[in-house]
Each structure stands twice: as C-alpha cells, then as structure tokens.
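Table S7 (text form). Paired inputs.
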Amino acid sequence: MRIGDICSNNLPSVATIGFFDGVHRGHRFLIDQVRREAAARGLESAAVTFPVHPRQVLQSDYRPKLLTTPQEKLALLAETGIDTCILLDFTPHLASLSAREFMEVLKHRYRIRALVIGYDHRFGHNRSEDFGDYARYGRELGIDIQPAEAFRLPDAPGGEPVSSSLIRRLLLAGDVAQAATCLGYPYFLNGTVVSGRRIGHQLGYPTANLRPDHPDKLIPANGVYAVRVETEGRTYGGMLNIGRRPTLDNGDDRSIEVHIFDFDRDIYHEPLRLSFIRRIREERKFDSVDQLTEQLHRDATAIRALLHATDTAS
C-alpha cells in the first residue's frame, strides 16, 4: 500500500473517504466494494483518510477515544489490499469547503474518478448535504458517485450496522468478545512495561504494568480478562486486570496489569501488546487479601482453560 498526501504521479482511482477508526469489518466490506469497482474499471483503489479526527479541528476540546492509533490504522488498512492511502490534514480551510468544492479537490488534486460513499457518510461544510447532492455534483464534475452497502452481523441487536461507535460501546461495557466479532480481530492495546507496586509478586501472580503508547487509545471496562500477550517476538496467555484494585486501596489510580502465564523474564521498559479475548468477571472488592488470592487462583484456572479452548477451536 502506498501512503501519500499529494504527488505528481497519482494514478486515476476509485476511492472512498472515512476516518476508519478500528478498520473494522464494516470498513473492510466498504473497501472490498472499492477494490472490486476499481478492478472492473482498470483503475487504482484508494482510501482517503485523516490522521486526526475531523471533529477535533472543529471542536478543540473534543478528544475521542480511539480504537486504533494513526500508525495502527495504517497497518490495518495495508492488510485490506487497498492500493493507496491518501492522508489529508483536516485543516480549518478544508472544513470550510462545500461538498462540491471538496469533490473538486478530489478530482483535480488526487485524480479520483469514482467515489464509493459509505451508507452513513457525510462531508462538506456543516455536513448538510446528502447522497443526492453528491451524485449531482459528481455528474457535473465527472466523478461517478456510488452508494455503498452497510455491513450488518446476522445476530446484531436490532440489525444495527457495524460501526466504530458500536464497537466503542461494546468495549466500554467489557464485551471484548463481541467487539472482536465486529472488528474481525481481537481488540489490542500496545504499550510499554513500567514499574509498579509489585503487589502481584507478593500474591504469587507477578504482573507487568502497561503504559499505553497513545494517550487517546480506548481502554476497555474495568475487570479481569483473558488475553494474549505478545512480547520479545513470542505470544503467551495472560490474565489481565484493569481497574483500581479496591481490595488493595489503590485509590483512584487506574492500572493495567497482566500476569503472563509460564513467563519469568524481566521486561521492564520493553514493548508489549495485549489482545483481548474475553472478560471473565468485573472488578470487585474482597474482604481480605486471602480471598483475593483465592479468586486469582480460580481466575487463572478459568482463563487457562478458555485460552486452551480457543487454541483448539482455531
């Protein structure tokens, strides 16, 4: 996948536009439509996206929690098979353009000949226009405008289409398994191992404390999770706790701590990736440290069995 802003050798293309947070199954369904259309026309396929959420330009205090950082998003877009990713800086000037003016930019600067528009996508100043307007401008400018189908899971509640907003809601509710179904892959969190209070060592479950690489990356709901842990080029099973450790009087500090099964090396300051498989319970306060330790034994046994079952199923 080529990545660029503006270059003299842009090839005519069929494109789509979006922020593509998470590059989920709905996005991949849309990009598949773009690739098919491009192949039928003998053109390149392209995705037009933005490094920063456009709403952050329009609303300075808006800080959305991201499913993917900019670097993660580009890596996932490359997996879709799209030929080119066009990165646009969403500036105040760009925000002031009407839909027709923006389409002129797409045609003359980026040589876009056809545009596949997502079922719920709006662009142009105030996002006040719709597909009928885009189609009319396309006829005037020589850009073929095509509607994209929405992607819905067969068992989705109420038939709701897969969207980044839906996935954020699932993660904030702790339903990482359903989020993975919508994403097409387990939700993941990249970070660096930092020093902690070493209480896990005292309980018999030493943990790696993770500091996320990006401050705006969405952290799922508090609780205990079965996870896959990637470190030093290998993957391990793990038991993750997100929360404030109420039994240990951790105050208001929220921590991300993972006990890595069958692992005993020092990985302070090393990069680590957590892939969420399932939340097995909510975080809760126990009457004593002994009760907490007993529960950790039960959690570890349950998580090992769950991870083994998922290995067998795959």
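Next pair, protein 2 of 2.
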Amino acid sequence: MGPPRVVVGIDGSVTSFGALDVAAAEARLRTADLEVITCAGDPDEAGPVLRAAVARVARRHPAVSVTAAPVAGDPACVLAERGRRAALTVVGSRDVGGVAGLLLHSVSRRLAALTVAPLLVVRGADTLPARRQRAGGLLLGLESDGDADAALFAFEEAELHGARVDVLHTWTYRQTPFGELPPCQTGPHPAVNSRTIRSTPYRALIAATAEADMVVIGAHLRPGRTGPEPGPVAQALLRHAHCPVAIVPTPPGSCRR
C-alpha cells in the first residue's frame, strides 16, 4: 500500500509556497511522501516553479520524499482527484486585491466542495510552523455528534504537533448545549479546553482564529454529491479566518455547516 501521502498545489506565488512549507512539515510529521503539483498550460513555465519547490523542501525538510509534476486541467478538480486517497491535501488562499486574489480564493472554495479527504487551506502569509511558535492550539468547531471525523482529525493533528485542542460550541437560542466530545480519541490525549458561548458560529470561530494555529471543522457529505457541501460557516472561515482552515468531510449529519 505504501507510505501515506500529502498533496499540495502550488502556482509560484508567495502564498502557495507558504502552503508548500506547511505541507512539507505535515508530511515529515506523518512520515509521508509529499506530492507537489501545479496546473499550467505550458509545462516549460511550470518547470522553474517545481524545481524551486523541490529544492525548498530538500533544504528545509531533507527527510521528506518529494515528487513534483505539472498537471493539465482545472486546479480544483485535479487537486480533488489527486487527494482522494491522500492523508491530507494542502492549498494556499489569500484575500488580496485584483484577479490573483479572486483566483486563489476560488480554487480553495471549489476544492472544499469537491474533496472527500481532509483539506488544509493555508490562509494569508503566515505558515503553520511559524504560528505554532505562539502555542495557540488547534481550534475545533463542533456542531453535532456527526462531527466525529473532524474531532478525530483535530486530536490526531494536535498529537502530531504537541498542541492542545480548544473546543468551541456556540448557540444562538436557549437550548441545552451538548458538551461532550464524540468518542473518537485514541492513544495519548492532548490537553483539551472546552467552552460554550452564545454567538453565531461563524462570528465566534472567526474571532477565535486570531489566537489559534489551525481551525478544524467538519463538512457533511450529502447523498448524490461527489464531495461535501460547505455551509456558511465553512465559507466564512475560508474567506475571513486568521489561521489555516482544515475542512474534514464527515458522514451526513442533521445540520449544514
């Protein structure tokens, strides 16, 4: 079956090389191979970008086995297909002015609706290893017991990085909030902080990402769809989060997130 694999898409931009750094670090922690792809109409134009990427990984993470190749096709569709059996797919996204910013956001947004495996969207110029020097922890947004896969991913990621997990529940009307994590932890448990606040989910999570190293949420798979259906919370995080966003496809749940 071979070692696990981390897939990253790059386009030569500063943002995409930040995503490359994160992907290489994740591959090292997972003892996984790293696959670097770029979608370019002209393979000759892709060559310098890919060579620079391979050299960067070799310099910063020499233990990581890396392959790189130009691929034809729509970037979101190509990344979704390459990532179907990957441990993680990584892509960059940044809200910058002009067409470049719109294209970067469009790829990550469409990929979130196509992926069937965990997706990490690295927002802004920050890279995850640099942010983690602040020990901000991993932020986990839970909606229901249907988010067990997202919770498992968050705990496994926290264990890999030696980070804590901050669990955030939100509510906007009087109800009995559920306060237990899904029964998904295995092995040594990371430190956990859990809190429930009265707020809309997207406002609370976006605010909390300012102090987090990563935010993890589930995106529920729907019958008849090839990928998850990112709801308003996921879409808001992809646009406004202050840290990388991990979207974990989960079995169908009762609510849309």
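Residues 96-103, 253-257 have pLDDT under 50 and may be disordered.
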